[in-house]
Amino acid sequence: MRISEFWRRMDDEFGEAYSRTLAGHQSLTAFGGRTAEELIASGESPRLVWEALAGQMGVPPQRRLGRDRPIRERPDAG
């Protein structure tokens, strides 16, 4: 998972403003109390950080992949 996907899932689940606050202040017990921002900055896998945060916050498994988005059609190459 890329960092951009981590933030997309955070925004989908918690809203854009709250997701930034949550990532910067919520201590993740699975990672010894470090925050999502600290973990990602130190090179931890965004996927593992997301799974830990989602689990700790009680996000149901069916919502952990974010919202469905339509597939973007590519313009014809011509």
Description:
By secondary structure, the chain is mainly α. It is built from 4 helices and no strands. It has helices at 3-14, 16-25, 36-41, 46-56. α1 packs across α2 (16-25) and α1 (3-14) runs parallel beside α4. The mean pLDDT is 91.
Give a brief description.
The protein is mainly α and 78 residues long.
Task: Output the keywords.
78 residues, 4 helices, 0% strand
Outline the fold blueprint.
Blueprint: H1 3-14, H2 16-25, H3 36-41, H4 46-56
Low-confidence stretches: none
User: Assembly state here?
Assistant: single chain
Number of strands: 0
3D shape:
globular
- Coarse structural class: mainly alpha
Which whole number gives the mean pLDDT? 91
How far the N terminus sits from the C terminus, by CA atoms, comes to 33 Å
How many distinct helices? 4
Q: In percent, how helical is the residue content?
A: 40-55%
Radius of gyration: 14 Å
Strand content: under 5%
For the report, how would you describe the main beta sheet?
none
What is the H-and-E element order? HHHH
